[in-house]
Amino acid sequence: MAEFFIRHADATQILLFAGAISLLWAIEHLVISLPEGEKLRHTGVNALFALTALPIELVLSAACLAVSRETLDHGLGLVNLFPDPSSVWVRDALMFVALDLFDYLYHRLMHHVPPLWRFHLVHHTDQHVDSSTTVREHPGETAIRSAALVVWTFLLGASFEVLLMRQAAETVFAILAHSALRMPPGVARVMGFLFVTPNLHHVHHHNVLPYTDSNFGGVFSVWDRLFGTFAELEAEDTVFGLDTHMEPTTVGDFGSLVAMPFAQPITGASGKSEPTNPSLAGAASALG
After folding, report:
1. Separation between Cα atoms, residue 180 and residue 102, nearest integer Å
2. Which of 69, 233, 237, 259 could, after both became Cys, cross-link 203 (CB 3.0–4.6 A)?
């Protein structure tokens, strides 16, 4: 069975992603009261980004597989600097955690390096975060992210089996994290000690600093706790979007979104504003 999924990795990822996002989208539609036409228009715009991402993902996934095979064949990668563990599961677990740390570091770079932020901000301009927001990624960022993963695979020496497991986990957690459905506070608090939850990731999609630059984790939330980027915010205080790009006609138009990284200069170090809500000013100071 494992051999089948490895041989058909691209198809497996596509089916997993499509199935998970379709199921959650349907649940959101049943549970959350949102005009059907509005939700369909919002989903339609985001779905167009999935179409632009697919060919890029397929090409660079093949490159990632080739690099993974080369590193394993020649004993390359940081993982080979450690003594061979007694169990292959220990080795795989270490690689999985290292890949998740890479995702955290990559995400922080996308926020703090202005040329990269130009592409990533498209994802943050969504003012109605739901499961479809998961695929709202500028094709330029898709290329950057996938190419970065190829480089990290080479440096780490990750096996393709672990890459596949990591991709499956990231897919599930990314869709859940962007879901419009929040967990009950008690459940979210317990799960949030280790894993990324919708309640935590919604904070990341709040429209002003310091919250936009918090909760970067992909699967594990521990990186944010370790590196001082963890934040919490009540649902009623969370406003989705980006305060520098709040025009509904612009952020709801696919063509405008594709052109956005090239359309205008991004002001400030990160292109994001400080909190404009006085009630959040104290929290901004606390997060520094």
Report:
1. 26
2. 233
Q: What is the pTM of this model?
A: 0.84
Written as one letter, the residue type at 48 is: L
Q: State the helix-helix crossing angle for 160-178 and 9-31, rounded to 10 degrees.
A: 10
pLDDT for 277 beyond 50: no
Q: Is residue 63 included in any domain, yes or no?
A: yes
Q: Look at residue 90 in the predicted model and tell me its pLDDT.
A: 81
3-state DSSP assignment of residue 90: helix
What are the tens digits of pLDDT across the range 147-187?
A: 999 999 999 888 888 888 888 899 889 999 999 999 999 99
Cβ pair 170, 218 in contact under 8 A: yes
What DSSP element (H or E) covers 93? Answer: helix 88-112
Closest listed residue to residue 133, CA positions, set 91, 174, 94: 174
DSSP label at residue 275: P
| Residue 174 falls inside a structural domain | yes
Indicate whether 1 belongs to any domain. no
Rounded to whole angstroms, the Cα distance separating 72 from 84 reads: 14
How many structural domains are present in the chain? 1
Residue at 52: amino acid letter: T
Q: Is the previous residue joined to 185 through a cis bond, with omega within 30 degrees of 0?
A: no
Of 1-5, 55-59, 108-112, 280-284, which range is least confident? 280-284
**170, 150 Cβ separation under 8 angstroms:** no
Nearby residues of 40 by Cβ (< 8 Å), 6 or more positions away: none
* Residue 124 Cα to chain centre, angstroms: 11
What residue spans of 157-280 are helical by DSSP H? 160-178, 185-192, 198-204, 222-226, 248-251, 254-263
